[in-house]
Amino acid sequence: MTQTDDRTATGLAFPAGFRWGVATASYQIEGAASEDGRTPSIWDTFARTPGRVHLGQTGDVACDHYHRYADDVALMRDLGVGTYRFSVAWPRIKPDGTGPVNTRGLDFYDRLVDALLNAGIDPMATLYHWDLPQILEDRGGWTNRDVAYHFADYASAVYARLGDRVRTWTTLNEPWCSSFLGYSSADHAPGRTDPGAAFLAVHHLLLGHGLAAHELRAAGAQEVSVTVNLSPVTPRDAADQHDVAAAQLVDGLHNRIFLDPILRGRYPADMLELVARFAGLGHISDGDDAVIAAPIDFLGVNYYAPTHVAAKVGAPATAKFPGSEGVIFPDQPLPVTGMGWPIEADGLRRLLVRLAADYPSTPLLITENGASFPDFADNGRVADDDRIDYLRTHLIAAHQAIQEGVDLRGYLAWSLMDNFEWAYGYEKRFGLVHVDYATQERLPKDSALWFREVIARNAV
Ligand code: FCB
User: Fold this and answer.
1) Ligand 1 centre distance from Cα of residue 68 (Å)
2) Where do the domains of the chain lie?
3) Is 421 in the pocket of ligand 1 (CB under 6 A)?
4) DSSP state of 226
5) Could you tell me if the CB of 72 is within 6 A of ligand 1?
6) What tens digit of pLDDT does each residue of 219-271 get?
7) Regarding the domain delimited by 7-457, which CATH topology (the fold level of the hierarchy) does it fall under?
């Protein structure tokens, strides 16, 4: 895949057909939280629980994309993106979580998809970006095996309506966040603090992915994928066996516990031991492995930051990595984004190269990469050079990975526009387009203008 497209005389050219785009997620942008039959999701409940989200903010209105989608599609057309990755809100489609389909919910995505196609933009639909119907959480959420089957039913219902026009389908977004942040560390909805529940959620999310992938494929989907958030994990001292073991554990919990079942058809042995310790193995049935390993057409990779770890005797476990007693996460001597996340573009290159080596013949697509910085609009302009630097260096790293032989098919920036950044509310801005939440006015930042050039030249 080192064939290049020389529409450009300068810069690093990406392969012909490389997919450029932007990503968003339903709860983060749509608003219209109780319109047209939508019922609450776990994020509506979580955001209403005092102390969970910055300033008690919610996604009730968000970017009001539900009503402004046509303008937002026009913004994307102006950017020149070829692909738009959005997610579908389960509680709009099946307000009871399961059972009858709510046609008005599907109508919204139908209109969105048509608007995208009219603008020459390829829709890429993600079926689960964290907004589980609350009614299913009341029955145990992802700790309940039935939810995996309900997910596959819901996926089929969405496909039945949109499958004639949407060719690329993603089952889950970032199951690590859904399970460990949702059920163990309580940073995310549903806000539980039970590591055993997190491991049950891991398995049922994986199973839901496999079941849905099977349904989508059987119904005729052209491309089926899943998106995981990955991080290259480095020991502080590669010559210290305790540091190396700590890195191995965190790599397992962050990366391999999802990658191996999906791409190799089994949990890694060290992770299975942890599952057994916290949740037993009674929830894993014969045949689950094969379901979870349903073939995918590409792996969606979300990359934001690297992870550095070290061993320290007596250190307590970190809740989002159950079983990580004796592991610490030392600060890295790296610049950070507005989230405090370390910036290391080479981490992306290393991650892609490692994926290509460990899971060969799985094409990769970067489904999210981006950064929050404290932007402000001044005289009709947002001069976000720090974001441009972040994106440019990560694109150079991605280009280098391609040169090293990685089959990377595309790059989608997070995010089209500023939006509800989960527990951080509207405080953190990741958009290429600035949103004034008082007026809902959109203003492309300098990074949007820069990204438009990159896309037009297919080069960075
Ligand atoms: C990812 C999420 C996405 C967004 C970015 C910043 O973990 O998938 O919704 O919040 O982080």
Assistant:
1) 22
2) 7-457
3) yes
4) E
5) no
6) 999 999 999 999 999 999 999 999 999 999 999 999 999 999 999 999 999 99
7) TIM Barrel (3.20.20)
